[in-house]
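Treating backbone geometry as a discrete language has practical consequences that deserve illustration. Part of our work consisted of pairing the sequence of a single chain with a tokenised description of its backbone. We regard such an encoding as a compact summary of how the chain folds. The amino acid sequence and the backbone structure tokens for this protein are reproduced below.
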Amino acid sequence: MAIKNDRLLSDFNRDLKLKGFNVWQIESDSNATRIYSRKDFYKICLTTGKSIIHYADRSFEAEGTVLFFGNPHVPYSWETLSTTYMGYTCLFSGDFLKSADRSDSLQQSPLFKIGGTPILMMTEQQRLFLNGIFEKMIEEQQTTYAYKDDLIRNYINLIIHEALKMQPSANFNQHKNALSRITAVFLELLERQFPIETAERPLTMNTAHDYAKALSIHVNYLNKAVKETTGKSTTTHIAERIVREAKALLHHTDWNVAEIAYALGFEYPSYFNNFFRKITGTNPGAFRETVV
């Protein structure tokens, strides 16, 4: 059974990456909400049950039907508390939605921002209406209609617009230890930037300011939280993770040093060489020779 489930998950992720979207129904007592593991897809969930959703540095306990918007750049986790859990899930890439007009402004909406309101409680009437939209997406996903991508994009945008008209949930709870929670969020967000799989999609977040901006907090607050919680500075964590990725790329790929430098967000290979030498005591070329 485990082998079959692994194969289904592999097929699911392959199809998702190929098409840029996937939508499916969460059935009673299923683990469907737990199989999502891709870090580069936006997520919309319509679920009925009891759960606790941890989103950035806040938590939300829900019982009933909720509409949830997940941003791949905002760490979150989901604890299912009820024995039955039903609903729908839709995943889509930023590139998939960009084909639609005004997608950029929608993705900058409060629904997808870390300081926003990504969870909304649904009435029975709203649940039935959104159920119908998800069912239409599932049905359309199976067709050979030439413009089905455009149609599914319209359905996604309809869900987003319906959510923007609703009153967001206000009963988020701040984590008991705000500094430790924001540190955990930062470390998870840092890890989500890796691995670097292609030089065409380079690392874009490589400073404390980048992460503070993504988390919608002041960089001084981030630095204080990380330093007090871990004993290391934000910059040190970022540098150590970049070096670890650099070593992996030098060891496991045939990319030249310049390609690795650009993939890791360095403007010039010389900057990468100096950075690598400062932390490791050797240059990238010499390191590669020691692991070959």
The chain is about 50% helix and 15% strand.
